[in-house]
Amino acid sequence: MTRKRNALLLLLAPISLILGIFFLIPLGIVVVYSFLEPGLYGGVEWTWYPYNYGRILGWPLNDYEEFDPIYLAIFATSLKYAFLTVLFSLLICYPAAFWVSRRSARWKGFVLFLITLPFFTSLLIRIYAWLLLLRPTGFINAGLEYLSLISQPLDLLFSGFAVVLGMVYIFTPFMFLPIYANVEKLDYSLIRASQDLGANPAQTFFRIILPLTAPGMIAGSIIVFIPALGNFIVPAFLGGAKVQMTGNLIERSFLQSRDWPFGSALALLIMASVVLVLMVQTIRAGRKQAGDAA
Amino acid sequence: MDFLQIVSASKHYQTPEGPPVKALDGVTIDVKNNEFLTLLGPSGCGKTTLLKCIAGFEDLDSGDLILGGKSLRDVPAHRRPFNTVFQNYALFPHMTVIQNVGYGLDVAGVAKAERDRRVGEALELVGLAGFGGRRPSQLSGGQQQRVALARSLVLKPKVLLLDEPLSALDRKMREAMQIELKTLQHAVGITFVFVTHDQEEALAMSDRIAVLSQGRLQQLDTPTGIYDRPANGFVANFVGTSNLFVGTITARNGESVTLETANGRQLRATGNRFQIGDQVRLVLRPEHLKILAPGEGPDRDGSVIQGRIKETVFVGSTIQVHADVGFGRTVILLHPHDNRNAQREIAPGAEVRIGYAAESAHLIAVADD
Asked: Pick from A198, A200, A211: which is nearest to B155 by CB?
């Protein structure tokens, strides 16, 4: 019995060490720092200082400041862009998954390879490529001008559009794979049965296909939403100074304004939002499972 | 009056390897109202393709489907007054039994009170009242089968299409469901078109059987007609067990004919379709063959075949006897099992005389194959 337990401990030691050293301890540091006063040149003063959170909410720190929810507004922008990213990647991946799932095995393998292909290149390079495509003298503007569709270059770069486009581009594979796994399992005889029972295509879609493929869509949406909400690299490159997301704010707090506690508090805000989303989903899934078992 | 006419239905599939395969080749069947019609054949014979074409899941290349005088070729599956019971039942896993059975009524916009009443009636009909709140995954195979039936019957289709619905059930359950399906068909008065590869199932349940092979209709007849008067060698072999002899007619005297096989065997039969010199196939069912007692002659104008018993298989009420009758041929016959008389003479190795009555020998033209 003890031998069995020792073996188990030994097998779980690597993951415990990695999670402990590189995840739990840093997380603890971030939590503690978020309640401390910022040091003058970075670092922290060891005094109780809950105002980091007040600042996020726009609370005035002293008499000279006014209530200004700018950080909440940035957070709202992040939420909006994350939602848009989820929405557009869903719209792209859902029909594509159906198409791929009906191909031959060889085609499927090839398409899945194509979908994972971007991972072979550095993310930074791929984002940089979008910079070259979208800038006023870039490929897209030059092409449109050549075709005489526009006379002035469009303001594509450094906009919400560019940020959402970039994030949709990065996260599409993450949306595609769970949806595909779900759609692939979908029993087409159910669709036939629905037709056979007199349902028109729309009824078949909303009553049969959608409910049966919802788990894949939900999983994909969560996997995309989480990194999109805290994303910093895409808004940094493609959003420029115009588009701020919470990720950029965190980066600035740590590296430029040297306000570690404020950055920590912002990081925890993102984390709390993500945990909230996951909790809602877990409860929902649990309820559904209980309903299935009943 | 003809009810549903299948008129020279043809359909082919493109195979990745090369030439197209003819799944249906000019099949014509007039389906009668309220009949239990079975499409019988080995896998790949086109029976399921025909069912899919009737349901509207597949289109015919040529030919037509006519219901009550109107062509169905441009009517999509969801507008055809047919419903299908699928081989794997295809119950909606995310819905309860009631939701499954009520699905067709819901999408048709039937008012709730009527919908509930009809769903209740349908579940009652298949003996599943009280199971309405369960999910398909919580039901046994037989129960799922009944839900699938109720889900289709609740819509009162003109034709119920059944795609090998019993193949997933175990033997006992399958036999029980065969009787139940037949009773159900009588009770609801709906035409059933039933697909199976199981000839016993087809014989047990059908009003008429359409035997298909390689996309062609081989024979359309009642179960006794198919069994007693197979139209060709394929049907004779596929339905039941047959002993076949090929030969040329050498003598004819009214109904009574004699044929001679290539090995010089003389065999008698009755029939008036053939002339002297015709090549024919003689079909003998195992139950029509009899082991003769010493000195006993064959029944009514029949013939005797000499043989030696190779193997006996005890199947309960009868003993299946495999006898070597020379020239490398084996004949299968059924000998009644009787624990009172001595069975000594039908042990392997015993020399026997096998006799049959001329009228039990069925003749098929060789050219019909």
From this structure: A198
